[in-house]
Amino acid sequence: MASGEMRSRRAPSSKKSKPERSRVKSRSTLPLQSTKSLSQGFRFAGGSPSSKSSSMEEASDKNESKESKTNVAPVEEEDTGSLEVNGDSPYSSRTTSMEERYLEGEEDGSSEDATSQLPAVSPSRIESRWSDTSSYGAKKKVQAWCRRTNGDWALGKILSTSGAESVLSLPEGEVLRLSTDSLLPANPEILDGADDLMQLSYLNEPSVLYNLQYRYSQDSIYTKAGPVLVAINPFKEVHLYGNDYIEAYRRKAVDNPHVYAIADTAIREMIRDEVNQSIIISGESGAGKTETAKIAMQYLAAVGGGCGIEYEILQTNPILEAFGNAKTSRNDNSSRFGKLIEIHFSSIGKISGAKIQTCKKITLNHFLCLHIIYSSIIFPN
Ligand SMILES: Nc1ncnc2c1ncn2[C@@H]1O[C@H](COP(=O)(O)OP(=O)(O)OP(=O)(O)O)[C@@H](O)[C@H]1O
Hints:
Elements: E1 3-10, H1 49-70, H2 77-80, H3 98-107, H4 110-117, H5 123-131, H6 136-139, E2 143-147, E3 153-162, E4 165-169, E5 175-179, E6 184-185, H7 205-216, E7 222-225, E8 228-232, H8 243-250, H9 259-273, E9 277-283, H10 289-304, H11 309-324, E10 325-326, E11 334-335, E12 337-345, E13 351-360, E14 366-374
Parallel strand pairs: 12-14
Antiparallel strand pairs: 1-8, 1-9, 2-3, 2-6, 3-4, 4-5, 7-8, 9-14, 10-11, 12-13
Helix pairs in contact: 9-10, 10-11
The chain binds adenosine-5'-triphosphate (ATP).
Residues 233-235, 238, 283, 285-291, 331, 333-335 line the site of adenosine-5'-triphosphate (ATP).
Domain Myosin motor: 192-381
Organism: Cocos nucifera
Family: Belongs to the TRAFAC class myosin-kinesin ATPase superfamily. Myosin family.
């Protein structure tokens, strides 16, 4: 599993002199153990029967939700407008401005229609899930993480604590006597699979890794960490993309963490505040930066397209990859250069052009920037 992260933030605008909003604070730079060192299913084997069944209930709930996601009813022709992104062409003859379309979605109640077709978790379920913290106080010290000698994290039950020492029982039946200080608290099971890491009571390394792995095992590859989106490369096809999803995020009918949601926020804020936006995608080689940028561009093209230029922009990817990609030990299709992509929008929210700058790739960990540039000039469509 490789992970990357992306965040959307305002870019300095040369066109407007509005004060810039406070920037997203950078995440903690605490060293994270590679997820590769986490044994598969390390938590599942360790949970009590009751915890297992509750996790499985959660999982089956989520699977139900996922199944219904794939059953999203096709959006009606007139609504999709320029949202055709599959079959190579996001072309559309519809020229309604994005602002108008956003307003349509918000005002004509069609967003409610979309909601009814989608797997969105009902608020009552969310509330009941997160409000049931009654056993939290009792449970919070029952389980704890300890680091094994090989560096893996293991979840165990605290059998007893006396002074500076605790006795921990591990899933395999092993019983360890450890310094209490070396143990890290585990989150209550009710928080398993939280879609925002900010919701975790304990934000320690094993808890974050566990939550990401828990979600990943259910093909939920995106997780929020406040304003940052953490993406785990699935290295397989996941059914999270396409016109139905684009439409759902455009109408705000779903709020699950997704690249589309990041792109949507960027484009909305660009129009609302008339300020450029930047989406910064970072991660190690093979983490999925290029694919993530393409997914974000797909969304921008679908929402801001209509005059055909977005199709040309999307088609630059294979050409650039043909010239600039190579197989490496980490990635079969590794970009051998860094990229700074600018997508220019007209003041009515239509894509009017793009600029892609390449630069030397210096380190294995690098950034990919997607700038969303607002223009006050109305380009002819
Ligand atoms: N969302 C995704 N769904 C399915 N597969 C993905 C996804 N993201 C990435 N991948 C897979 O991972 C591979 C590597 O992704 P990508 O080329 O985007 O990584 P990168 O971070 O840009 O790497 P590099 O820095 O070496 O260019 C892709 O070729 C693809 O097979």
